[in-house]
Amino acid sequence: MSKSLMGTVDKALALLRFFSTQNAEIGLSELSRLAGYDKTTTLRCLNSLENNGFVEQDPMSRKYRLGLAPINLARIREQSFPVQTVIKPHLDQLVADTGETAHATLVSGSSLLTTLISEPDRALRVFVDPAAQLPVHATATGIVIAAYASEELQKQMLSKNRLKAYTDATPTTRKELEKRFEVTRSNGFARSERTFEDDVIGTASVIFGSAGEPVGAIAIAAVATRLDQSLERKIEVGLRNASMEITKALGGVLPVTTISA
Q1: Which of 68, 140, 197, 252 is the most buried (most CB within 10 A)?
Q2: Range 229-238 average pLDDT
Q3: Which of 132-141, 182-191, 252-261 has the highest mean pLDDT?
Q4: 207 and 234, same structural domain?
Q5: What's the mean pLDDT when you consider all of the chain?
Q6: Does residue 195 form part of some domain?
Q7: 120 and 226 part of one domain
Q8: Per-residue confidence (pLDDT) for residue 259, from 0 to 100
């Protein structure tokens, strides 16, 4: 496959990441602006995606939305590698035990994709957008995965997002991140206090693959004002136990340095 064709494929697939629950339909001009492509390139990519069922165009508004092809591919993926079936019960149990929002993220290349979310039945809870790109440096999920990643994967993950300050507590230097990586490996989990949103404290534990590499993470996004020492401990133990069980169920291998609960 030629480099030019590969570039076109990459550009087309990248457009899919701009769709979310908050942005389910997007017009050509807006999508072109979001992607940083000219309209001709954007339209060519959209035509290819539409021809293959990945997007469809509303005949009235002329806006684009996701098509049915991703649903079919997701079903095939789940049947051959049942990640959601394995992870969902653990997330539901974490929510029942802690009363806070639980979510799972998987590594896709050098990107982090939120795949499952379980929410508590209470009015005040943290909302996690399944389509949002989690910044590696500002979230517990990103920190815990990067902490255990190979040097090359870590470099790729961090190069994708500038160390933007989302709050006053966001780490914005490589030195700060290295310190957080070290603490994470020592504790066996990552905690990010108000680093992405001022009223949220995230805690995450890594899921390992067959070669002992990080393939994802499960996390609790807690309302900051509710997080006392008792809940902190409950979250830490629950996440570490769940991540180890998920790792084993998926055929993963725990590194010898991982701390058990």
Answers
A1: 140
A2: 96
A3: 182-191
A4: yes
A5: 89
A6: yes
A7: yes
A8: 47
User: How would you write 223-248 as a 3-class SS string?
Assistant: EHHHCCHHHHHHHHHHHHHHHHHHHH
What is the number of domains present in the chain?
Answer: 2
For the segment 1-21, what is each residue's pLDDT rounded down to a tens digit? 445 544 678 889 889 888 877
Claim to verify: residue 61 and residue 177 sit in the same structural domain: no
257 in a domain, yes or no? no
- Please give the average per-residue pLDDT across 119-128, as a whole number: 94
The reply to whether 60 and 184 lie within a common domain is no
3-state secondary structure of 65: strand
**Has residue 261 got a pLDDT over 80?**
no
Task: Tell me which residue range forms the domain holding 216.
Answer: 81-249
Q: In degrees, to the nearest 5, what angle opens at C-alpha 216 toward C-alphas 253 and 233? A: 85
7 with 119, same domain: the answer is no
Residue 121 lies in a domain: yes
Query: In the prediction, which pLDDT does 113 show?
Result: 87
Enumerate residues 6+ apart whose C-beta is below 8 A from 6: none
Helix 83-98 vs helix 229-249: crossing angle, to nearest 10: 160
Helix (H, G, I), strand (E, B), or coil: what is residue 128?
A: coil
Q: Which residue has tokens 């990640």?
A: 83
Vertex 246, ends 240 and 252: CA angle to 5°? 105
* Closest by Cα among 247, 209, 261 to 90: 247
Check whether residue 245 and residue 160 sit in a common domain.
yes
Q: How many degrees, rounded to 5, is the angle at CA 189 between CA 184 and CA 195?
A: 75
